[in-house]
Amino acid sequence: MRTTPALVCLLLIALAAPARATVVVPADLGELARDAIAIARGRVAAINVQWTDDRGTIETIVTLEVESYLKGSFGSELSFRVPGGELGRFRSIVVGAPEFAVGQRVVVFLGARGPTIPFIVGFNQGVYRIVAGESGWMVTPPANVPAAASVRVVRGDVARRPMPLADFEQRVRALGSAR
Amino acid sequence: MKRRAPVALVLALVVAPADPALAYLKFGTTVGGRQVTLKWSQTPVRYFVTNVSVPGVSADDFQAAVGRAFATWHAVPTASIAYQLGGATNAVPGRDDGLSTLGFVSRPDLDRVLAQTSFLVDASTGALVEADIFFNSAFPWSVAPGGDANRFDLESIALHEIGHFNGLGHSALGETELRAGGGRTVLAAEAVMFPIAFAPGSTAGRTLKADDIAGISDLYPASGSAATLGTVSGRVTKNGAGVFGAHVVAFDPATGSMVANFTLNANGQFSIGGLSPGPRVIRVEPLDDAELDSFFDPSRQVDLDFRVAFSDRVVIVPRGGDSGEIAIAVVAK
After folding, report:
1. Which of A36, A57, B8, B22 has its CA 20 to 30 A from that of B273?
2. For the whole prediction, is pTM greater than 0.80?
């Protein structure tokens, strides 16, 4: 018997709060740029939560007002899906899934399979936040830029800093067009 | 716009700052304005497995590998948690049906997600009602005893996900490398709960580390273990102000083992529980190599701008007690 979310709600009586956690395959900036169909910089314009088509769980549709594409194009406004969200009496939390708020500026790496709403490449790895820095707009977290030689990532290294937006975009454009 | 409530819950789930004796990140939830740690209230915890097979892993193989991973958590001597296989089911992992179900599901859209744990919580009590784990059949899997060079080791990934199933969050005790010619790989992990997978073929994730053991012992302490284990606590500051999100590692020079936590409030306070008595060296580092969404509510401002620092003395973990506050000052990069 298929149990509907509404029935579970009745069975539990109390508000139910699903949560999720994941293990991921790592990616560097080059892999993200290569795998993405489109890479967009923009501002979050809307967030809508809905049941998935099979009504098995909850997902969030994020609408982005695009300022610029670093690769590909989905138009001046695009939507992409992220897992989790709040709908009625249910909250679905995906630990590790990127969260968005209206007004945030971000760079997102997007994939798509067939005529469906795009998704973020690399789960939480394909989202960079744009924040104000002392010398202009910066991109965080510090990007894992492909290296000419193998290099250990060292926490606390003075070079591991948020990157200026212009530098970040220049690198991503180059990586996204590389074969 | 409904983002404020989920954001608040993520904060509760990932950080649970009200608990003074965190081994490292545990899941928690807010009930009536107070923090409640998410954990199973009764054991054995009953789970079901699907009869779905994938190339390289039959349904029987799957059940056996998952059973070994459950047994590994059960075998921790300082913890007390048990599990019971309820049998095979046609249920689908991820559906809210009252069964805790583990199985393969094809999710090619989750292009770099190997597996995912979901759980259902009775928010009126904070009780864990159900937990599901799906393994993404879009990836190649193996149960070969020595691993398969081209496939991910099911038992290793199951051990990580069952850690979540128990109520444990992610650990940052791991190190990665950017490879020549592109790609990023895990060099070492001192916790099964490190969120980034080893390369295909590795079976290193089949063995729990000190950090995992401290975490499960803190969540489900065996009778009498609280009197034998200790805690290190303290505060991390920069220019006199508390640092949020600093990774604090307690290194045991006698065994080489590490257990870690984060500073989890604006005052920069931390607490690392579940430690065996003895000396520790305390290291503080920024989490400037990670996807912060794996650890923290993204609305929190995690400080990444400081250099590595150490405690100015060896810290002694007392048996059944706390070290007393350790003060560590860091400086900007």
Report:
1. B8
2. yes
Contact check, Cβ <8 Å, A26/B294: no
CA–CA gap between residue B130 and residue A76 (Å, rounded): 42
Pair of tokens at residue B154: 């099911």
CA nearest to B189, candidates B213, B207, B214:
B207
Torsion of CA A166, A172, A175, A177, to 10 degrees: -100
Query: Do the chains contact at A3 and B306, CB–CB below 8 Å?
Result: no
Q: Which residue of B has its CA nearest to A31?
A: B183
Mutate to test the interface with B, among A7, A10, A13, A23 (most CBs of B within 10 A): A23
* C-alpha dihedral (A24, A29, A32, A37), degrees to nearest 10: 160
In chain A, what residues touch B108 (CB-CB under 8 Å)? 113
pLDDT, one tens digit for every residue, chain A (179 residues): 333 333 333 233 233 333 445 567 788 899 999 999 999 999 999 999 998 877 777 789 999 999 999 999 999 999 999 987 777 666 666 666 788 999 999 999 999 887 789 999 988 889 999 989 888 999 988 888 888 889 898 999 998 988 999 999 999 999 988 76
Q: Does residue B285 sit in helix, strand or coil?
A: strand
Q: How many residues does chain B have?
A: 333
CA distances from B156 to B64, B131, B160 (A): 13, 18, 7
Query: With the CA atoms of B7, B171, A23 and A44 taken in that order, what torsion angle do they form, in degrees rounded to the nearest 10?
Result: 30
Structural domains present in chain A: 14-177 (2.40.50.140)
Contact residues, chain B, for A84 at CB < 8 Å:
6
Strands (E) in chain A, as ranges, are: 19-24, 38-51, 58-71, 77-83, 85-87, 90-94, 105-111, 119-120, 127-133, 136-140, 151-152, 163-164
Which class is domain B38-217? alpha beta
CATH top-level class for B229-330? mainly beta
Tokens of B146: 């020595």
Return the ∠ at Cα B157 (arms to B151 and B158), rounded to 5°: 125
ipTM, 2 decimals? 0.77
Predicted local distance difference test score (pLDDT) of residue B197:
83
Residues near A111 by beta carbon (within 8 Å), at least 6 away in sequence: A35, A36, A37, A118, A119, A120, A121, B109, B111
Task: Give, in order, the Cα–Cα distances in Å from A106 to each of A52, A72, A169, B322.
Answer: 25, 16, 12, 43
Cβ–Cβ under 8 Å, residues B250 and B274: no
Cβ contacts from A onto B, under 8 A: 249
| Contact at CB, B123 and A147, closer than 8 angstroms | no
Query: A57 and B333: CB-CB below 8 Å?
Result: no
